[in-house]
Design brief:
The chain contains two helices and five strands. By secondary structure, it is an alpha+beta fold.
Length: about 90
C-alpha cells in the first residue's frame, strides 16, 4: 500500500501487545502485503491486508486518506480458519 506516513492507533497498539505482534511485522504487511478486502468510504479507502511474517497469516486493517496518503492502521489480527478459506483471502 502506498503510504507517505503510517500511524498506529491506540487500539492497534493495544491489540499488537495482546497478540504479541511486532511493529516490524505490521509495517512489512502495510508495505508489501496483499489486499484481501477493499472498500471506499467517504474520505478514505479501507483495506484488509494479508501477510505471513513468521510464517503465520496476519491481517492488518488500514484506512488510507487518498489526498494525504496517510495510512492509519486500525487493527491487526490472526485470521480465524473457521471464518476464512484456506489461504485467508476470502471469508467463508
Amino acid at each position: 500500500m502506498d503510504c507517505r506516513r503510517i500511524v498506529l492507533t491506540k487500539h492497534v497498539l493495544r491489540r499488537m501487545q495482546e497478540r504479541r505482534i511486532r511493529p516490524s511485522a505490521v509495517f512489512e504487511i502495510v508495505a508489501e502485503g496483499g489486499v484481501v478486502e477493499e472498500r471506499h468510504d467517504i474520505g478514505e479507502d479501507v483495506c484488509v491486508l494479508l501477510g505471513f511474517p513468521d510464517g503465520r497469516a496476519l491481517h492488518v486493517v488500514v484506512s488510507r486518506n487518498p489526498l494525504t496518503a496517510e495510512c492509519n492502521v486500525k487493527t491487526v489480527y490472526y485470521p480465524n480458519p473457521d471464518e476464512w478459506n484456506a489461504g485467508f483471502r476470502r471469508r467463508r
